[in-house]
Amino acid sequence: MPRVKCTIAYDGAKFSGYQVQPNSRTVQEELEKALALIHKGSEIKVTASGRTDAGVHARGQVIHFDTSLAIPDARWPSALNSRLPEDIAVKQAETVPDSFHARFSAAGKEYRYKIYQDQVRDPFNRFYACQSPVKLNTSLMEEAGRQLIGTHDFTSFCSAKTEVEDKVRTITKLEVVEKGEEIELRVAGSGFLYNMVRIITGTLMEAGKGKISPDDISSILAGRDRSLAGKTAPAEGLYLWKVFY
Fold first, then answer.
1. Residue 112: exposed, middle, or buried by beta-carbon count in 10 A (0-12, 13-18, 19+)?
2. Tell me, what's the pLDDT at 163?
3. Which residues form the active site (predicted)?
């Protein structure tokens, strides 16, 4: 059976996350419903590069599925998009070898986190960015972020609920880009722990407010204690931007 790889985008505001769960609307469920319609009721399982939490968005999530249908690559996006809700879109599709796996073949990911700076909340941004009522010092945020680039034990920057034992990860890029009142954090790496990007964001925001020094980052890493880092930034500002293979 051919294996199809798709790059998809979704607005996570009205989803309870990517992964199927009881009595909840999820991205995976909508994808599998659309595939079942195309396959005349046959169940088709979808595998993603990783799951995203409720409220988290994706610009470049990657999935794969196996199909018995001989549909050309160029036609898969329209075939699926015509059966998907408006908050999910298949951007690209290609047939790949059976050895390809959306999760295990991934070499890395890039996430982006959006912050808008305003004392008054923006109704149009409430599901798509995190509000900072105070002006953040992006130079301090960038200086703090540089301390995280490289290979480190990120125990202090992952949820205490995680069951993963090996918390060593490599960050290859961390940029702080300011455009007017909007700040965008761009973080790329070989892999990420649960809530890692959101905790990094919350910690860099503390640096931007002057509540911690960029020099504190090394001791936060060395402490291997979640309570040392900043708060977990809200889900709505996070975007899975790209998966690398």
1. buried
2. 85
3. 53 (nucleophile)
